[in-house]
From TrEMBL, chain A:
Keywords: Amino-acid transport, ATP-binding, Nucleotide-binding, Transport. One of its GO terms (cellular component) is plasma membrane. Belongs to the ABC transporter superfamily. This is ABC transporter ATP-binding protein. It comes from the Bacteria. Residues 9-266 form the ABC transporter domain. It comes from Microvirga brassicacearum. GO terms for molecular function: ATP binding; ATP hydrolysis activity; L-isoleucine transmembrane transporter activity; L-phenylalanine transmembrane transporter activity; L-valine transmembrane transporter activity. InterPro entries: AAA+_ATPase, ABC_AA/LPS_Transport, ABC_transporter-like_ATP-bd, BCA_ABC_TP_C, P-loop_NTPase. GO terms for biological process: D-alanine transmembrane transport; L-alanine transport; L-isoleucine import across plasma membrane; L-valine import across plasma membrane.
Automatic annotation (TrEMBL), chain B:
Keywords: Cell membrane, Membrane, Transmembrane, Transmembrane helix. The gene is livM. Residues 30-130 form the High-affinity branched-chain amino acid transport system permease LivHM N-terminal domain. NCBIfam families: PRK11301.1. Its main location: membrane. It comes from Microvirga brassicacearum. It is found in: Cell membrane. The chain crosses the membrane at residues 34-51, 63-82, 119-139, 151-169, 174-193, 199-223, 230-250, 295-314, 345-364, 376-408. It is a multi-pass membrane protein. Pfam families: BPD_transp_2, DUF3382. GO terms for molecular function: branched-chain amino acid transmembrane transporter activity. One of its GO terms (cellular component) is plasma membrane. InterPro entries: ABC_transp_permease (IPR001851), LivHM_N (IPR021807), LivM-like (IPR043428). This is High-affinity branched-chain amino acid ABC transporter permease LivM.
């Protein structure tokens, strides 16, 4: 249980209600530093809602979400205003339905992601307008960083095209690169492989593994495609109807009868029976 | 990582030249369709036109009017046929958005009419700088050119206001219907500071801008939580509130009577007067009333160019990119750590500041301000300039201002038309009709404004204009 020793994200008793609907019910889990943690579950299980709570789009009804910095200090994400979760706590995310700045070029998308550091370099615009200070240098650094990511997602050729003009798979990769340009400690990906063909999906796995290897970024991943989950994740958390039903390594999850039941849609009493049928 | 790259990354944007299929004028089809229209018109006119009821004593007679019906039906036939002929012309196809633009983003190259030629900007700038001389040469005298220079000043004031509002509406995507409030704040700032404390225009100008920006922040703070229609309505209300305060706070603003005898512009301290110590005296030239006008012309030209310069500069700074990103997707901005409220406020404040500059210019030009100059119609005209010109496009806004402010003036000079239409004909009366027709034409052919393409703020290899099919208008 590596993730218990040095968690980057510690979610405790998270509950989110929308009126009478309990979207997340007393969810606790940890995501290990340097791990790829997968959050899986059937449609409507509450996975996106967990992301929205972590990244400040929803204020949780109850519970605590702590981000542990490498120096051991904590930040309580549910108390931060939405926009500072990215800048102060260094949590970046992508969206289930892609949200690129479609009328801006691919390069501009990656520069907008570096807004806060560039803003400081431009003296909060005052120096930048007058053309004094180190903005020029900061901007060329930002472009260099963008180039690095463009190279990594193989979109250098299309840097000057509008993001809305890219094919779907490229838009998914660009959204990941844009999130990575904010230099996050934790990257939350909401169904990054949805709509990708097998080859693109394979490339995505390689991209995620290289992010984990080359950057100090841990990944929290929502995914439906079990082959992706099993191949790249170190730790899997399974949600069903807002409740955690399983938590462990991919091989443990694969043989957990409750997970199988949740995915096959079997009533609780039959779980034992299903388990014996598949020989687990 | 490199081998399979070619297939996914090549989605070549087809140029519009490839996608425009040459359409032949199919006369038979056009004739058939026109006959169909004529038949419908005939059917409709039977109950409406064909019989007239005449009363004679207690009896009612039906008077048949088949001649009239025939005239109407043939008019409709003819017009429909002409329409078909027109739609088959090359000019029409060039001016019509490619059907792909609405559906397939990949083919959405801006067409010929959406592109500004490379020479467009130097050309317009040259005209603007040489305008007083050109008019002097054309009209053949100082006094004769007074009207035209005055019109030039008016147009440039609206160009500047349009550029200021463009920051808020075009770049940040915030629909502001109360922009005139900041114009008023600027005008009254100069009027009050100069009449009460005797401060000069050059001191009041930055102060007016700062005050307007300050009011932009004060009004913006509660308002910017709202989005879309709500934002539009509340900004409209704020614009009206400012006007009503100006009317009712009589102690400060002298109410509806306005503030008069505001000090006129001076040439850095030299007044434009005939006597000793005036501008003409100082430079040893002959005094002429037009000298002040020409100075005002270059003053507003300089202010407008300043607005343009700062806006172009801001677009390349992180704040400008954040405005445009905000227009594209506010939620994505928030996930990237952009403080959306502050970013919107800066757009509001900077737009307001330029409105304030323009306002103090207005006061120094008129020498008189009253609340009636700052009504909703003014906001509507400025917004129409921005939307018509093309949201976000600087040159588009300038063209929009020339068309919307200069256009109605052209009507005044069409006196020769009385020779054709008779003595009672006044082209001015058709102003709103033409305005409406122009709006409808725009909605059909240029729904995204005259210049709808977007120029990227930065590029790696090649600066490519972005078609309006991708660019969003913002929702708030
Ligand atoms: N803003 C909201 N208001 C009301 N209900 C919501 C809201 N967001 C999510 N839900 C509900 O919460 C449940 C979980 O949704 P979601 O987190 O999107 O599931 P998924 O696991 O498929 O991502 C669903 O029943 C959804 O309808
Ligand atoms: Mg979801």
């Amino acid at each position: 249980m590596r993730w218990l020793q040095d968690p980057i994200l510690d979610v405790q008793h998270l509950t989110m209600r929308f009126g009478g609907l309990v979207a997340i019910n007393d969810l606790s889990f940890q995501a290990g530093r340097g791990d790829i943690t997968a959050l899986i579950g059937p449609n409507g299980a509450g996975k996106t809602t967990v992301f929205n709570c972590i990244t400040g789009f929803y204020k949780p009804t109850e519970g605590m979400i702590a981000l542990r910095k490498p120096d051991g200090s904590h930040m309580l994400l549910e108390r931060l205003p939405g926009f500072s979760i990215n800048w102060k706590a260094k949590v970046a995310r992508t969206f289930q339905n892609i949200r690129l700045f479609s009328g801006m070029t691919v390069l501009e998308n990656l520069l907008v992601a570096q807004h806060n550091s560039l803003m400081i370099a431009s003296g909060f615009t005052f120096l930048g307008v007058l053309g004094i200070g180190g903005y020029r240098k900061a901007e060329s650094d930002a472009i260099e960083r963008a180039k690095y990511w463009l190279d990594k997602i193989r979109l250098t050729d299309r840097a000057d095209d509008p993001a809305g003009d890219l094919p779907y798979g490229a838009q998914r990769r660009l959204e990941i690169a844009r999130a990575m340009c904010t230099d996050p400690l934790l990257l939350c990906l909401d169904e990054p492989a949805a709509g990708l063909n097998p080859r693109e999906s394979h490339e995505l796995n390689a991209l995620l593994l290289s992010i984990r290897k080359d950057h100090a970024t841990s990944i929290l991943l929502i995914e439906h495609d079990m082959s992706v989950v099993m191949e790249i994740s170190d730790h899997v958390v399974v949600l069903d109807y807002g409740t955690k039903i399983s938590d462990g390594s991919p091989s443990e999850i694969r043989s957990d009868p409750r997970v199988i039941a949740a995915y096959l849609g079997v009533a609780d009493e039959e779980v034992e029976q299903v388990a014996s049928e598949i020989g687990a | 990582m490199t081998a399979p790259s070619t297939t996914t990354t090549t989605a070549p944007a087809t140029t519009s030249a490839d996608t425009v299929v040459p359409v032949r004028f199919d006369f038979a089809a056009a004739l058939k369709d026109s006959l169909k229209s004529a038949a419908i018109a005939f059917g409709l006119s039977i109950p409406i036109l064909a019989f007239k009821t005449d009363q004679s004593g207690g009896d009612i007679f039906l008077t048949p009017r088949w001649g009239l019906v025939a005239i109407f039906v043939s008019i409709i036939f003819g017009v429909r046929l002409l329409q078909h002929a027109f739609m088959a012309t090359k000019a029409y196809r060039l001016a019509t958005p490619d059907p792909h633009q609405a559906t397939e983003a990949v083919h959405a190259e801006p067409n010929a009419f959406q592109k500004v030629s490379r020479f467009g900007i130097p050309f317009f700038l040259g005209i603007a700088i040489g305008f007083p001389f050109l008019i002097y040469l054309i009209q053949g005298g100082m006094n004769e050119s007074r009207y035209w220079v005055d019109l030039g000043i008016l147009i440039l004031t609206y160009v500047m206001l349009g550029w200021g509002l463009n920051i808020v509406v075009g770049l940040a995507g915030l629909l502001d219907l109360g922009y005139v409030a900041f114009y008023a704040v600027g005008a009254y700032s100069y009027a009050l500071l100069s009449t009460t404390f005797g401060l000069s225009f050059w001191i009041c100008l930055p102060v007016a801008g700062i005050l307007a920006a300050f009011w932009g922040i004060i009004l913006g703070f509660p308002v910017l939580r709202l989005r879309g229609d709500y934002l539009a309505i509340v900004t409209l209300a704020f614009g009206e509130i400012v006007r009503l305060v100006l009317i009712n706070w009589v102690d400060l603003t002298n109410g509806g009577a306005g503030i008069s005898s505001i000090p006129r512009a001076t040439f850095f301290g030299l007044p434009f007067t005939a006597g000793e110590g005036g501008f003409a005296d100082f430079f040893g030239i002959e005094y002429h009333g037009m000298q002040r006008m020409i100075f005002l012309y270059y003053l507003i030209l300089a202010l407008a160019l300043l607005t343009n310069f700062v806006t172009m500069r801001l677009r390349k700074l992180p704040v400008g990119r954040a405005w445009e990103a905000l227009r594209e997707d506010e939620i994505a901005c928030r996930s990237l750590g952009i403080n959306t409220t502050n970013t919107k406020l800066t757009a509001f404040a900077i737009g307001a500041m330029f409105g304030g500059f323009a306002g103090s210019f207005f006061a120094v030009r008129q020498g008189f301000v009253s609340p009636e100059s700052f009504n909703f119609l003014e906001s509507a005209i400025i917004l129409a300039i921005v939307v018509l010109g093309g949201m976000g496009s600087q040159i588009g806004v300038a063209i929009g201002a020339v068309v919307l402010v200069g256009g109605p003036e052209v009507l005044r000079n069409l006196g020769f038309l009385t020779a054709i239409f008779g003595a009672g004909f006044d082209p001015n009366e058709y102003r709103l009709l033409l305005f409406g027709a122009g709006m409808v034409a725009m909605m059909v052919w240029r729904p995204r404004g005259l210049i709808s393409e977007r120029q990227p703020s930065v590029f790696l290899k090649e600066r490519k204009a972005i078609s309006s099919a991708h660019v969003k208008e913002g929702h708030g």
